[in-house]
Amino acid sequence: MQTLQKILPKYSIALSLIFLVTVVYLFTRGNTVDVDAVTVSDAELVQAVYATGFIEADNAASLSAEFSGTVRSVGAREGDRVSAGQPIIVFESSQPELAVRESRAAYDEQSAVFSERQLRYGRIRNLYAEGAVSRQDLDDAEKNMRQAGELLEQKRMRMKIQEDELKKVAVRAPFAGVLALQSVKAGDYVSAGSVVARVIDTTGYAVNVEVDELDVPRIRKGQKAMVVLDAMPEKRYEASVWRVVPQTDTVTKTSRVYLRFLTSVSRIQAGMTATANIVYNVKAGSLLVRKSSVFEENHVSYVWKVEDGKLRKQPLKTGAGDLAFVEVLDGLRKGDQVVGVPEERFRDGMDARVQKKSLTHQ
């Protein structure tokens, strides 16, 4: 029993030492954090308005049938290239063609009558000058000629109307382009007013984007923009502001802005989804920090600064910003290191092991 009493104090002392070492180790280990540090540097601050929209052809036309009837033939289908004036669909047209022939015959007949009365009036006028006919004869000849001329004009107008009606039996391309829509086939009956085709001029495209009403005052014609297409996300296309529509949608609270590509873009199609950053201001030589590094407490901005291997909670005075960066007006200097992504467990004075370093603007 005495031996056991002598041994227990020794074990108690050893266990206490192990416990103390463990506590010190855990305390020390818990007060050290691994961080990715970002070196603050000067860079160009590019302020831009972000907008989304779609690609739109500069010139596009939806074509409607002006004639009700059965389709006789189809001159082009979706995806086909068409020339200006080319028939896309043609209707059965026996009645309009007959009306044109009849109106032309009537015009030719009246034209002959008018010519005959012109000649007669000329002869009567000569005879009147010689005193061979009376003034009444001259007036009657002039009246007959004038009436024939008026009737001829009526026949001409009637013929023009019939010819215009005949033109309606064919839906034609108003300009050269590609058919994006052609919804009928031979034998279909189409009512007047139905949209039967859509032609797109593929030589030029614009980007139609919606800009929030709060950002519209920053937009000016000619400003540079960078466009990304969802169909080709790996590429960036330079553009500029072409038109700003001076009206805000009362529901979406956005205004339409049209951008024009600065260089030709291949494999593009109308309707493709696009996003754009419209640059409205560039500040050179700004001290920048990533927005992801900044956090806010009680309306004050802070970053976790890594200084002499420890974390320091550094207040900031910030200025302008863009999508990724914010300008530092006070609180940091070029070359300072800050934590890339703050964590809730960080405390002022913690030991910090830097795992990775990078520049702010990378």
Description of the molecule:
This protein is an alpha+beta fold and 362 residues long. Helices cover 27% and strands 45% of the residues. The chain has helices at 2-30, 94-130, 135-167; strands spanning 32-39, 41-64, 69-74, 81-82, 87-91, 170-172, 177-182, 189-190, 195-212, 224-229, 232-248, 254-261, 273-290, 295-297, 300-307, 310-321, 325-330, 337-339, 351-359. The strands form 2 sheets. The chain has a 6-stranded antiparallel barrel. The chain has a 4-stranded antiparallel beta sheet with strand order 6-5-3-8, with no helix packed on it. Strand 16 and strand 17 (325-330) form a beta hairpin. Helix 2 (94-130) runs antiparallel to helix 3 (135-167). It is elongated. Mean pLDDT is 86; it is low at 23-29.
Give the SSE layout.
Blueprint: H1 2-30, E1 32-39, E2 41-64, E3 69-74, E4 81-82, E5 87-91, H2 94-130, H3 135-167, E6 170-172, E7 177-182, E8 189-190, E9 195-212, E10 224-229, E11 232-248, E12 254-261, E13 273-290, E14 295-297, E15 300-307, E16 310-321, E17 325-330, E18 337-339, E19 351-359
Parallel strand pairs: 1-19
Antiparallel strand pairs: 1-18, 2-9, 2-13, 3-5, 3-8, 4-7, 5-6, 7-9, 9-12, 10-11, 10-13, 11-12, 13-17, 14-15, 15-16, 15-18, 16-17
Helix pairs in contact: 2-3
Structural class by sheet pairing and helices: alpha+beta
- Biggest sheet: strands side by side, in what order? 2-9-12-11-10-13
Shape: elongated
**What is the C-alpha radius of gyration, as a whole number of Å?**
42 Å
How would you characterize the largest beta sheet? 6 strands, antiparallel, barrel
* Poorly predicted ranges: 23-29
> Beta-strand percentage?
over 45%
Calculate the mean pLDDT score and round it: 86
Q: Helical amount among residues, as a percent range?
A: 25-40%
Give the number of DSSP strands: 19
What is the succession of H and E elements? Answer: HEEEEEHHEEEEEEEEEEEEEE
